[in-house]
Amino acid sequence: MTEEIIIAGFGGQGVLSMGKILAYSGMMQNKEVSWFPSYGPEMRGGTANVTVIISDERISSPILNKFDTAIILNQQSMDKFENSVKKGGVLIYDPNGIVRHPERKDINIYTIDAADEAARLGLAKVFNMLVLGAFLKLKPLIEPEYMRKGLEKSLPLRHHNSIPENEKAIERGKEIVKEIHLAN
Amino acid sequence: MKDIRLMKGNEAIAEGVIRAGCDGYFGYPITPQSEVLEYLMANKTKERTGMIVLQAESEIASIHMVYGGAAAGKRVMTSSSSPGISLMQEGISFMAGTELPCLLLNVVRGGPGLGTIQPSQSDYFQTVKGGGHGDYKMIVLAPASVQEMYDFAKLGFELAFKHRIQVMVLSDGAIGQMMEKVELDEQVPRWTDAEIKIKSPWATTGKTPDRERNIITSLDLNPVKQEIININLQKKFKHIQDTEVRFERIQCDDAEYLFVAYGSSARICQKAVLLGRERGIKVGLLRPITLFPFPTIELAKLAKQVKGMLSVEMSAGQMVEDVRLAVNGVVPVEHYGRLGGIMPAPDEVLNILEKNFIKEKSYEPHTN
User: Fold this and answer.
1) Are B69 and B23 within 8 A, CB to CB?
2) What are A38-96's pLDDT values in tens digits?
3) Which residues of B touch A154 (CB under 8 A)?
4) Are B179 and A23 in contact (CB < 8 Å)?
5) Separation of CA A180 from chain center
6) Is B184 near chain A, with CB under 8 Å?
7) Interface predicted TM-score (ipTM) over 0.90
8) Residue ranges per structural domain of chain B
9) Which residue among A33, A61, A65 sits closest to B181, beta carbon to beta carbon?
10) pTM of the predicted model, to two decimals?
């Protein structure tokens, strides 16, 4: 099993930390993992992305241009990464702020209203965990006990009291992810 | 229980030098390697092992602090990225002239000039062919994973003191910034003053009545003596070429075509090997781990087996010259590289290999 994932959105949406939690959890479950962030001018200009790979085997390239799953959280990232999803792969996006929706018919497309849900819960911080929940519903690679260990490892001690609400958000994300069927 | 962590390459080498018993780090921040200094500072090394970590006023000051620490027999190091390493060349040449051991790290970014902060491999010539003046070489280690960033800290110090030579870890922005699993090992104790006197009798540890003064200088105005100094240096480099070559063979046994790549390019080519095998192409990868000494003999052997080699580097073609010297015209050797901080994709390098060596070269009309 090898899962190659791109997570892309605005800086501040928790893109890099979502990737880090996923990678840490995978590592705790004894998988091989890699996490490669954008650290250049695009990050400073507002958009951020990270490539996460989780595998049972030694990981070859941490740098990729085709992905099994793309998690897309803004329009610029949609424009950049829609065509980078492998045929038959998965694209998950939050429609909030998206003006041009994905059009590919050879991939599986899902939406998660994470921004709306986070606002409804009054917990803007759990936005990225809702999105992570959507991913885990579609790709149940990591078992909940290892997700917890991943959260414990990647969050600083002073934030450990927020782990239960993060876990709840992951579960909520699993519930509200929706498949989109594009008309032929 | 094993100590396993998820770390950035830059953090891994910082933890590596602490655990390797490093005595002092002197450096100046620059992207994409600033995490080295940040990690060392945050880890309170003075309390942990007694290791000194100092942010100097410049790269030039840093390398000369390393010179001073090394002259005293200490395990010392600095790190920087391309423009900063250029500033250090004078100090590196002086350390070559005085045979002082040290560990250097270059987390390469695109150049020339200030260039970009994105990953690149365009400092191969500077590192492997001697960026400073004079006939000298450094041992150059090229990590291709975060684990190797960690491992090469200890290995680097071992080689540096074994041969009284400067060891450069030639990394790049991708290896420095990415996170992977790292397995950490036990703390190596720092050497005591008594141990330093035994391990490095040449060091300037203070004259005692039982020996002559140790003088560390690269200046000898007598050309006869200076030639002898140089001949002895060359003997050392030859000995290193004969004994310290390191490389990794990936799917080379039945390979008909070969990628040659180091560092993050090697990771990209590793994936290209998998994709190539799926397409039915018998392709392998030779990954040099030491760039000096270069795996010349291994490449010469492989040249008798394969039909062509593609050297992949994030440069305009630097290592490819050493590949061609090794292959000596036996098979065609081509170069593929991206410049200015762009990283090639695995299918991109595989397509280039196919186009160069496998597909019939047919006339394609120019359409645009």
Assistant:
1) yes
2) 876 655 557 899 999 999 999 999 999 999 999 999 999 999 999 999 999 999 999 99
3) 6
4) yes
5) 18
6) no
7) yes
8) 3-194, 249-358
9) A33
10) 0.94
